[in-house]
Specification:
By secondary structure, the chain is an alpha+beta fold. It is about 40% helix and about 20% strand. The strands form two sheets. A five-stranded antiparallel β-sheet has the order 2-1-5-4-3. Strands 6-7 form a two-stranded antiparallel ribbon. It is globular.
């Protein structure tokens, strides 16, 4: 079953998850590095996040945060931490495959965040709020229908 892993460094990779419920849970737990929570920011997708990401030493995941904000249509007042796994929705205890459109959007937001981070090495944002606003502006542009 196809899923996407978004890492804190704004890289992403395709994953193949098992279809069995117990095996999925075990695989997600191993990939995230601990207990997992399911977060719904789009009705056709789940973001699997570390159950205690903010309370650990996990790094902030700006690409996953920007994607969640863009999908949800609001500026989340909290951050996401560590590796995030994006799947399709839950159907009876197992998660479905991420559809092509949402996979493409997640990959585009990730690429956009990588590009912004490269630009910031020579043109850093003025403040943390400016950084977040720039991330959101570009993430929302990346998921707009063309």
């Amino acid at each position: 079953m196809r899923a996407l892993c978004i890492n804190p460094d704004a890289t992403s990779s395709h994953l193949g998850l098992p279809t069995d419920q117990a095996a999925q849970h075990h695989a997600l737990r191993n990939l995230i590095g601990g207990s997992t929570d399911r977060a719904v920011y789009h009705r056709q997708a789940l973001l699997h996040v570390h159950g205690n990401g903010a309370g650990t030493q996990l790094p902030v995941n700006p690409a996953a945060w920007a994607l969640a904000c863009a999908w949800r249509g609001l500026n989340l007042p909290y951050l996401l931490y560590g590796p995030i796994i994006v799947t399709g929705p839950d159907t009876g205890g197992t998660v479905e495959e991420l559809n092509d459109r949402l996979l493409a959007q997640a990959e585009e937001v990730t690429r956009t965040v990588q590009e912004l981070q490269r630009q910031w090495s020579t043109r850093p944002p003025e403040s943390e709020p400016a950084t977040r606003q720039e991330l959101l502006t570009y993430a929302r542009r990346a998921i707009r229908p063309r």
